[in-house]
Write a structure and sequence with these properties.
The complex is a heterodimer of chains A (about 90) and B (about 375).
Chain A: H1 3-14, H2 18-37, E1 41-44, E2 48-55, E3 58-61, E4 68-71, E5 74-81, H3 83-89
Antiparallel strand pairs in A: 1-2, 2-5, 3-4
Helix pairs in contact in A: 1-2
Chain B: E1 4-5, H1 7-18, H2 22-41, E2 46-48, E3 52-59, E4 62-65, E5 72-75, E6 78-85, H3 87-93, E7 103-104, H4 111-118, H5 130-140, H6 164-170, H7 190-193, H8 200-218, H9 231-259, H10 261-265, E8 289-292, H11 299-307, H12 313-319, E9 335-338, H13 341-344, H14 351-368
Antiparallel strand pairs in B: 2-3, 3-6, 4-5, 8-9
Classes of the chains: A alpha+beta (about 90), B mainly alpha (about 375).
Chain lengths: ~90, ~375
């Protein structure tokens, strides 16, 4: 299901127009972006949680040419499925 | 930071962001996740624009052990739900570290030096220390959170041949190098300190030695330590280098001593801002610039407004450290002083200034742990 169909379905169920639903979805996305960049996780019961994972900076040596590179720290977004949903998916 | 945002909080956040009622926001979110879940249960993957894709991967069956009985069982093959964040979202989430790129380390940076920096020992303060120190600054730059205390450990994955090797290598062939008139030319220490020295006498020497580094490093042949006849030679060179360093250090100290005077005068004891509550657009440095915190106007926004970059919120925080308990959560109505740019060397166009601000932010986060 792509974005359009999802918005359609939700709009129909809620009885709202697609523009509103689209805006709500965008708001949700931007909240995930801002809060997770601050290392907060977002928990949705029965669905899962969006967790930020931080990777520290590290020095990696390329064994072939001996060059050492410093990789900066990084925050990645990870989604953890809730047990409820996992069971439903089995 | 490291908080778990519960569903009610999420409802409130969405309601605030879209100016809808919490009831509406709650209904929407419930419906959204129900629809996504149903689609997934039906076996269809879901793609959300700017968020990501919820899809399935097949997991093969594998043998395992029943935790209760200890007998061997087989975990059947099944499908697993995966989420791949959208590129824009991934970038947005990595925003605090967006400016950093993987950097190649100079050959002279030894494992020992890395460990030293790691443990918090500053390399000897020389004029030319900047390039080396900045590669470690990404670790200390703005850190939103630290999950464990030993964060900044720079892991060295592979052991490189010891640094003494270029030294030993160099010793047998002193004639092949153009010997510069100044004493400390072929210095064994320069593999550690050559790139750091910028005093006039040694510049030419470091140029030649640095040019030879790449060729030197390709000969990864182990050599024994220099023979005993070379020892006095090393000692003599060492004292020569230390002398030059001492002179360089004094020059640097004088130069930085001269530049610190202007800032000393601009730090009058900044106290009562309660009396000057009106946020004033300042003309002169003397007048207090203040601002009020609200739900929509917080430290980073203030920094962006007054300085041009939100990274400088750290200085606003420091200026008002007695008023602000938690920089992530400033009570609305708190009146804060906006310090002048000169006080903290705030320059939004200067990457060094920005990096210092980020490092300060990181230090603050660390302290608060």
């Amino acid at each position: 299901m792509d974005n359009k169909k999802l918005i359609d379905k939700v709009a129909r169920k809620l009885g709202r127009n697609k523009g509103d639903v689209s805006k709500l979805l965008e708001a949700f996305t931007s909240i995930v972006a801002t809060r997770c960049s601050e290392m907060d996780s977002i928990v949705v019961p029965g669905f899962g949680s969006f967790e930020p994972r931080k990777r520290n900076e590290r020095v990696i040596a390329n064994p072939s040419n001996g060059k050492r590179t410093l990789f900066p720290p990084k925050i990645t977004l990870h989604f953890k499925v809730s047990a409820v949903l996992k069971n439903k998916l089995k | 930071m490291n908080n778990k945002i519960t569903f009610p909080e999420l409802v409130q956040l969405v309601a605030d962001a879209t100016s809808t009622t919490p009831r509406m926001s709650e209904l929407f979110l419930k419906e959204l996740f129900a629809t996504i879940s149903q689609s997934l249960i039906d076996g269809e993957e879901v793609t959300i624009k700017n968020l990501g894709k919820f899809a399935f991967t097949q997991v093969a069956a594998r043998k395992s052990v029943d935790v209760n009985t200890g007998e061997r069982i087989e975990i059947p093959g099944h499908r697993k739900l995966t989420f791949t964040p959208d590129k824009t979202l991934a970038e947005a989430v990595n925003m605090p570290f967006a400016a950093f790129e993987p950097t190649e380390l100079s050959q002279e940076l030894t494992d020992e030096m890395l460990q030293d920096i790691d443990q918090g020992n500053e390399p000897t303060p020389l004029v030319g220390t900047e390039p080396i120190v900045q590669t470690t600054q990404p670790a200390e730059a703005e850190e939103p959170a630290t999950e464990s205390t030993d964060e900044v450990a720079i892991e060295t994955v592979a052991e490189l041949p010891p640094v003494s090797l270029p030294v030993a290598d160099r010793e047998p062939t002193p004639d092949s190098e153009p010997i510069v008139a100044s004493e400390p030319e072929v210095n064994p220490q320069d593999t550690v300190q050559a790139p750091l020295m910028q005093t006039g006498t040694v510049e030419t020497a470091t140029d030649t030695t640095q040019a030879e580094q790449p060729t030197r490093d390709t000969e990864l042949i182990e050599h024994d330590a220099p023979s005993s006849t070379r020892r006095p030679f090393l000692l003599g060179l060492l004292t020569g280098i230390l002398a030059t360093l001492a002179i360089g250090g004094i020059v640097w100290a004088i130069m930085s001593g001269g530049s610190s005077q202007p800032t000393a005068t601009s730090t009058p004891p900044v106290t009562d801002t309660v009396t000057t509550t009106a946020p004033v657009a300042t003309e002169s440095v003397k007048q207090q610039v203040t601002d009020t915190c609200t739900a929509s106007m917080y430290l980073t926004k203030m920094a962006k407004k007054h300085y041009g970059k939100s990274d400088f919120w750290v200085y606003i925080y420091e200026e008002n450290i007695d008023k602000i308990a938690d920089p992530n959560n400033v009570p609305p109505g708190t009146i804060v002083i906006i310090p002048s740019r000169e006080k903290y060397n705030i320059n939004p166009d200067d990457n060094g200034s920005i990096d210092r601000a980020r490092q300060r932010a990181f230090e603050l986060m660390y302290k608060r742990q």
